Amino acid sequence: MNSNKIALLPEYLLYLLILLLPFEELNTFGGLAITKLIGLAFFICSMVDPKRFYGSIPSAFIVFALYISIGMIIDIFSFPLEIASFNALVRPLLMCVLMITTYNLSINRKFGHLVMAICLSSLIYGIAQLFELGGAATRIEGTVIDGVSADRIAVLGGDENFAACFISLSVLAGIVYGFNLRPSRWRYRLPALATSGIGFCALLKTGSRGGMLALFVGIAAIVLTVAKGTQRLQYALVVALLLGLLSVGAMQSPAFKARIISSVETGETAGRTDIWTESVRLFVDSPIYGFGYRMHQFKLGERTGHEQRGTHNLFLSVLLGSGLLGLSLFLYFYCQSFKAIWLHKAEGINAIVFVWFFMALAASLSINTEIAKWFWLLVALAFSAGKSRPAASIWKNRQPDHRGANWREPIASFSGPPFVARVCLEPEQTK
Fold it and tell me: 110 burial class (0-12, 13-18, 19+ CB within 10 angstroms)?
């Protein structure tokens, strides 16, 4: 059997894993989430063709592996090696492998497929959230602010903030295509706009202020995808109008309105300022190596009166988990991803990944994105921008067709999206 056909199975399993991310918190067998089972199957099957999935490992990934190794080693000596804790201990390593796989598929012309899978997964979550299809797995956080009911809803067992950020992915992709910010046909624009509408209405039900702010940052980043001054001004006007309309829509939601007013009047941040203050104080106790990728959450929990507490900030989490040494390694990798997507942000659907990257960056300042697979998928996609390999080898010899006419060798053009290679055949003039 052709090796390419054999490799399709793990590739499809990866797409399935992405599509099932909304259901990650639902246990299905032996206490394991469905995504863990699919992920395990993917990693096993991917060994049939390691060159496709792990053939290229840039130095930045090695630096990232060094970063996570610091926290993992500390965790190994801090926790007894039991099955219950094993999954949490190896989580960062699995994230690294997932990013390497995403990178390799992206540079081998699967960039568009991965983007589409993420869009569909986000849309699935949005539809389930909008129509509250979570059943018994729906999380409802009921609060009353100034006499106004402000229930927050997250279906499928997810967290409200994570749900809001993940749903934002389809909203942003729909805006980019729906408003023709990336040239597209009307038959694609209308469904894209509908997708954005569904996602935004679903996001309102989460009541997540951080998620809404991250979405707004992603929308604002659209202006940066063009370099020409006139075109950038046009984009800025569209973005300003869109942000205004979305702001008005958000204030129509009782949950959002009550929580936003509470934040403005009282400075309420769901305890984040206290968490960040204690995180800084805890960092002083071990500034070089930190407390471990997982162990730092228990250390922070002791200081805040909880068994376990996340920092609600990616960079604080890295700092507490691996210290200044780990933070410097992490920032090197993260900045390499930012550099790659920044330089190629105007190339085809890279614009979508670019606004996703900014949305995820804003989200990482107020939620624990380090435990979210979708976050690391976006970072890997950003790192792969502009590195696509040719679709096929270029013929070196001219080949006559059935009419005997000579044809020039095919010309591969990569001026469009990085995952598309357009091959053009031009007839040669005969004397």
Answer: buried
> So what's the pLDDT on residue 391?
42
Measured in degrees and rounded to the nearest 5, phi and psi for residue 210 equal: -65, -40
Residues facing residue 153 across a β-bridge: 140
In angstroms, the CA 419 to CA 18 distance is: 19
Residue 160 CA, chain-centre distance (Å), reads 16
Count Cβ atoms within 10 A of the Cβ of residue 80 and give its class: 0-12 exposed, 13-18 middle, 19 or more buried.
exposed
Distance CA 252, CA 396 (A): 63
416 to 189, 223, 251, 386, 388: CA distances (angstroms) = 19, 20, 40, 11, 11
pLDDT single digits (tens) 381-416? 999 999 987 543 322 333 344 434 333 333 333 333
Q: Which of 336, 332, 374, 340 is nearest to 356 (CA)?
A: 374
pLDDT, tens digit, for every residue of 327-343?
999 999 999 999 999 99
Q: What is the 3-state secondary structure (H, E, C) of 274-333?
A: HHHHHHHHHHCCCCCCCCCCCHHHHHHHHHHCCCCCCCCCHHHHHHHHHHHHHHHHHHHH
Q: What is 139-192 written as a DSSP string? A: EEE--EETTEE--EEESTT--HHHHHHHHHHHHHHHHHHHTTSS---HHHHHHH
User: Which tens digits make up the pLDDT trace of 7-57?
Assistant: 789 999 999 999 999 998 887 666 667 888 898 899 999 999 999 999 999
- CA–CA dist 16, 42 (Å, integer): 10
CA gap 193, 301 in Å, rounded: 43
pTM over 0.85? The answer is yes
User: What size, in residues, is the chain?
Assistant: 431
Over residues 113-160, the pLDDT tens digits come to 999 999 999 999 999 999 999 888 898 887 666 666 678 899 998 999
3-class SS of residue 334: helix
